[in-house]
Amino acid sequence: MHDTMLDEDSHIIGFQTRVLMKNMRKAFEDIQYETFPDQTAVSHGWVVGYLYRHRDEEIYQKDLEKVCHMAPSSITAMVKSLEKSGLIRREAVAEDARLKRIVITEAGERFHDRTIENFNRLEAIAGEGISEKEMDSFFDILIRINRNLKNFRKEAEGAKYS
């Protein structure tokens, strides 16, 4: 199966999903850049979205490190950039002067809303010319592939420690 050339017609799940993710990301970057030519990187949208969804909670830099699976230095740079852009602010915590909670600003909420619109636009572009029935089948298959891989990983983890 894998002795064939890897090209856009290859029937190799891993290759096609990797190419799909790369194309989705690049298209989303293009759409975001149209909307926010002077704004932060696309990955920052995930952080702003997380802060938006958790705006009623106290969120700290350590929380973002865990959620984003990023190194502390990378999150520090991202937080500084988001703060400079006015999308978030850091607020001191009364109980511990060393802690600064991260809060989304009104500008950050507007950025989030436009990013969601852009994401919906990307989904429409990606699904163009594909029927609802075909999309349902596509998602059913993706879900089953993911389930297969999760089950395999659980079994592999169990075998490691047996």
Description:
The chain contains six helices and two strands, in the order H-H-H-H-E-E-H-H. With 162 residues, it is mainly alpha-helical. The relative contact order is 0.10. Helix 1 crosses helix 5 (106-126), helix 2 crosses helix 5 (106-126) and helix 3 (61-68) packs across helix 4 (72-84). The longest helix has 29 residues, at 132-160. The protein has two domains: 13-128, Winged helix-like DNA-binding domain superfamily/Winged helix DNA-binding domain (Arc Repressor Mutant, subunit A); 129-162. It has helices spanning 13-35, 42-53, 61-68, 72-84, 106-126, 132-160, and strands at residues 88-93, 96-104. A two-stranded antiparallel sheet has the order 1-2. The two termini are 32 Å apart.
Topology:
Layout: H1 13-35, H2 42-53, H3 61-68, H4 72-84, E1 88-93, E2 96-104, H5 106-126, H6 132-160
Antiparallel strand pairs: 1-2
The CATH homology group name of the largest domain: Winged helix-like DNA-binding domain superfamily/Winged helix DNA-binding domain
How are helices and strands ordered from N to C? HHHHEEHH
Round the mean pLDDT to the nearest integer and report it.
90
Q: Could you say what the CATH topology of the largest domain is called?
A: Arc Repressor Mutant, subunit A
How are the strands ordered across the major sheet? 1-2
Tally of individual domains:
2
Number of strands: 2
Number of helices: 6
* Helix content percent band: 55-70%
CATH class category label of the largest domain? Mainly Alpha
Quaternary class: single chain
- From the N-terminal CA to the C-terminal CA, the straight-line distance is 32 Å
> What is the CA-based Rg, rounded?
20 Å
Poorly predicted runs = none
Which percent band covers the strand fraction?
5-15%
CATH architecture of the largest domain: Orthogonal Bundle
Give the overall silhouette: globular
Describe the largest sheet. Answer: 2 strands, antiparallel
Structural class: mainly alpha
